[in-house]
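Researcher: Can you fold this with zinc ion in place?
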Amino acid sequence: MVTSWIAAAAWGLGSVLWAELVRDLYHVLSHVWQPLYRLHIWHHRVFRPNLVPVSDTIYRQAQWRHDLPESLAMLLFGLPLFLAAHFWTPEQQWLPLVGTVYTLSFLAGAIARGYGVAGAHELTDLTHLPGPFLAPPSNWFVNRTYHWRHHFDNQNAYYCGTLTLVDKLMGTALSLQGKTVAVTGASGTLGRSLLLHLHRAGAKAIALTSGDRPITLDIDSKTKTFKTVTWQVGREAELADLLEKVDILVLNHGINVHGERDAIAIQKSYEINTFSTWRLMELFLTKVRSNEEIARKEVWVNTSEAEVGPAISPLYELSKRAIGDLVTLRRLDAPCVLRKLILGPFKSNLNPIGVMSADWVARQIVKQARRDTRNIIVTINPLTFVTFPIKEFLVSSYFKLFSNKGDSGQVSLASEPETRFF
Ligand SMILES: [Zn+2]
Ligand SMILES: [Zn+2]
């Protein structure tokens, strides 16, 4: 009895999931196969960046040329499911009808929009409605902010229509092409590797460093000099103008005082690892105002595996856990995507006995970011993959329950007096 209920649920939900997979693959095909692209291009001609249709005629044409054939493909490729159900579980052979009914609702919507039925656009075309974006791009379900990027950020990414699974599998859930990405701690081992792999992914990488020499890297036997901006911990506000133009801010600077535990070591660790990172994050969030900024801007914070495990360096752990928790807290209301980089020990100047190479770690970070992983875990410690998600869920739920958004607005992020350690 229980087994047949599970099988029934699997056929019902599976047929809906299958319809969505067909929809997204049809869309991908529409971008790579010319005959379909000629029809699909109408869908891209319709909207202005504020998602208001250019004209009613083009909008209606786009329904007949893209949305209707897409729904018909979903219907057609749903048919083999009936055959499969008939042979495997004959008593449930009609359950793929769930997917068919689901698809028919989209078919009906496309026809209604094609005929220009009043209210059809508002009722059935939810990812193309104009108006201010109320949330950053969502992670598992496509919202307006997510889909806007397919039209106006990169048409060769963000293909999904309802679930983001296909984009995650294809690495098209975040496009770095043409994005301006600023990386702090850029002269460090990981910072340099991040610059390299972000550059390779098509981003315009900017190095933020306390050093005054431009960062150069040998890439494919050529020397590449990155735009380098010098800044100091405690003087984050001086980066305000630069951050206006930055799409993704990667907060990667840090200090490890190892076994020290005196007052200066405490101050240094918290000032650099926690508060400097937090101030830059807050400053960046004040730059997220328009729909485009909500859709494109992101912060990545290197909070480290020390969030959930020992790093043989108590003050490193304390200060990294503090910034990790602050990111968890701010994520509840942040106007754009905040990612965490949960990294295990890699070989660097801070940690000469690290196991992983910084180059490999940076490559994994970029790869997972393109899959829109919000908590990017790169480590050789299998425990972290279990403990981090549990910890993040529990802490986030606790913060959600016992804190509220408030309306205090922005804190003053004016430059702090320059710290005497630098
Ligand atoms: Zn669209
Ligand atoms: Zn498209």
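Model: Folded with zinc ion in place. The CA atoms of residues 85 and 93 lie 5 Å apart.
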